Amino acid sequence: MNSRLIEWNHSYSNRDNFVFYPHEEVIRFVSKYIIKRIGLNSYNPIHSHKTKPKILDVGCGIGRHIFFCHQMELDAYGIDLSTVAIKTAHEWAANLAFPNADKRIIQGDIRALPWEMESFQYAISHGVFDSMHFEIAKTSIGETARVLQKGALFYCDLISGDDSKHSREYAGEEIVQSQHEKGTVQSYYNYKKILELIGDHFEIIEANLIRKENILSGDFLSRYHLVLKKI
User: Fold this and answer.
1) Contact (Cβ atoms closer than 8 angstroms) between residue 26 and residue 68
2) Are strands 54-58 and 75-80 parallel, antiparallel or unpaired?
3) CB–CB of 154/228 below 8 Å?
4) Cα Rg of the chain, angstroms
5) What is the pLDDT of residue 18?
């Protein structure tokens, strides 16, 4: 068992990453670019695909965004390195009567995605590509691009060095020492590093830097939220 798998299984075994509700920026991406909910059981498709679009969650964890996308009438798939996370996702899927979870929610390495070229019209990834060494992230971005159709949209977010412990342009890598995700890699990004990450695979449609500040302590952190288009 490789060290990355051990680290992430440990994190999920401690339930550090047991998050059950979709992130607001993922909700915004889906509602703005794919399909918007307009009633209790009513949806307004924004996409122009003739069939239900396929969307991939790259680094899906226990499946919160898969199940949100399924609820939004999308054909949702996911992959995560952690065997603990995927086991939990399958248990959650059974409770939700999510179909074919064993084929649609898969344990694996995102550097070698088990889908054919151009299988998906959309992809999402929250808190993933900054939780690995940069060289691994670049390979994984290439794999994500491979399974996306030309013109497909991809939402992802990346931690910025713009926080109370670093500088705006800091783009180094550190080993997490806090209890949450302890022992895993934290790779910080600036805009130059983002451009290097996406290479010639994607063009940037949106790039927002969102800062969260604790007014009482003065501590703050920031994340880049990106919408990318497959070239």
Assistant:
1) yes
2) parallel
3) yes
4) 17
5) 78
User: What pTM, to 2 d.p., does this model score?
Assistant: 0.91
CA dist 117 and 106 (Å) reads 17
184: confidence class by pLDDT, cuts 50, 70, 90: confident
- For the segment 48-62, what is each residue's pLDDT rounded down to a tens digit? 999 999 999 999 999
As a 3-state breakdown, the chain gives helix, strand, coil percent values, each rounded to 5, of: 30, 30, 40
Q: List strand residue ranges (DSSP E) for 99-147, in order.
A: 105-107, 120-125
* pLDDT tens digits along 100-153: 999 999 999 999 999 999 999 999 999 999 999 999 999 999 999 999 999 999
Helices 64-71 & 24-33, crossing angle to 10 degrees? 30
**Res 12 pLDDT > 70:** no
Cα–Cα distance for residue pair 194/192, rounded to 1 Å? 5
Question: Which SS3 state, helix, strand or coil, does residue 154 take?
Answer: strand
